[in-house]
Design brief:
140 residues; Cytidine Deaminase, domain 2; five-stranded mixed sheet; alpha+beta; single chain; 5 strands; binds tetrahydrodeoxyuridine
Length: 140
């Protein structure tokens, strides 16, 4: 199984927890933080941001990915997402596809945590098998 070095995992966990503290989730009350590790070893964090017009809200992973792209990152190596528990959080379908755009699905680690620590880990390929991605468009 792919594993992150413990110090890198700790950095991701701390960044995601700090981002979760910034969550704007007045409607669901489900606060989420995410931290993305890019190809240069930089960490980019984000929280979920809801909206009174409910469908306009977005996930913590989307905020973190946007931060990565704006900082010049193009390939995510790992994403740690942390929610309130007790159920293990997993990225929604839309976020799996967003992550697909900026990763190699077989090696992107998705790590789920809650306030008590890390709970589960998958690759993006496990969560989004047979995915559609940038390569599908390159022969046109
Ligand atoms: N949410 C995330 O930010 N990330 C996830 O992985 C799952 C769900 C948010 C969206 C919404 O603001 C709240 O959690 C409840 O669905």
């Amino acid at each position: 199984m792919l594993q992150l070095p413990p110090d890198v995992l700790q950095r991701l966990l701390a960044a995601a927890q700090a981002a979760r503290a910034r969550s704007y989730a007045p409607y669901s009350k489900y606060a989420v933080g995410a931290a993305v590790l890019d190809e240069q070893g930089h960490v980019h964090a984000g929280c979920n941001i809801e909206n009174a017009a409910y469908p306009q809200g977005w996930c913590a992973e989307a905020t973190a990915l946007g931060a990565m792209v704006m900082a010049g990152g193009r390939q995510a190596q790992a994403v740690l997402v942390t929610g309130p528990g007790p159920d293990i959080i997993t990225p929604c379908g839309g976020c799996r596809q967003k992550l697909r755009e900026f990763s190699l699905p077989a090696s992107l680690l998705i790590i789920a945590a809650d306030p008590s620590g890390v709970k589960a880990q998958w690759t993006l390929e496990q969560l989004l098998p047979a995915s559609f991605g940038p390569d599908h468009l390159k022969h046109l």
